[in-house]
């Protein structure tokens, strides 16, 4: 039987603090959820935390997972934080991250 992918994610999200469960099963499930719901920002973020993965035959790094998360939910603060950490390792990407942040802040109705 097919499990509803959002229910599957919610189950994993409650248990993700258990590192053995998360590392053994998390990446596979996040990839599975994204096959069915590619606009699910929190799952993209979670896949980035896992180090990246393969969705629909395309490999995504940590960085590209965080970028996908922000594309679907620009106000996801944790994704901005972790993207900035990845960008600090690659200073050439830092300018692009700042421009994305400024673009989002400019469109924010805060």
Gist of the model:
The chain is mainly alpha-helical and 110 residues long. The chain contains six helices and two strands.
What does this molecule look like?
By secondary structure, this protein is mainly alpha-helical. It is built from 6 helices and 2 strands, in the order αααββααα. It has helices at residues 5-15, 19-36, 41-49, 62-72, 77-89, 91-107; strands at 52-55, 58-61. Helix 1 (5-15) packs antiparallel against helix 2 (19-36). The protein is 72% helix and 7% strand.
The ordered H/E elements are: HHHEEHHH
Bulk shape: globular
Low-confidence stretches: 1-6, 17-24
Count, helices: 6
The gyration radius over C-alpha positions equals 14 Å
What labels describe this entry?
110 residues; single chain; globular; two-stranded antiparallel sheet; 7% strand; disordered N terminus; mainly alpha
């Amino acid at each position: 039987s097919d499990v509803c992918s959002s229910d599957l994610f919610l189950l994993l999200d409650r248990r993700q603090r258990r590192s053995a469960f998360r590392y053994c099963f998390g990446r596979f499930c996040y990839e599975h959820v994204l096959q069915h719901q590619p606009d699910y920002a929190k799952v993209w973020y979670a896949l980035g935390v896992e180090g990246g993965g393969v969705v629909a035959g395309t490999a995504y790094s940590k960085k590209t997972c965080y970028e996908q998360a922000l594309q679907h939910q620009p106000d996801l603060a944790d994704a901005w934080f972790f993207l900035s950490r990845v960008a600090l390792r690659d200073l050439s990407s830092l300018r692009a991250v700042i421009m994305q942040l400024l673009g989002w802040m400019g469109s924010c109705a805060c």
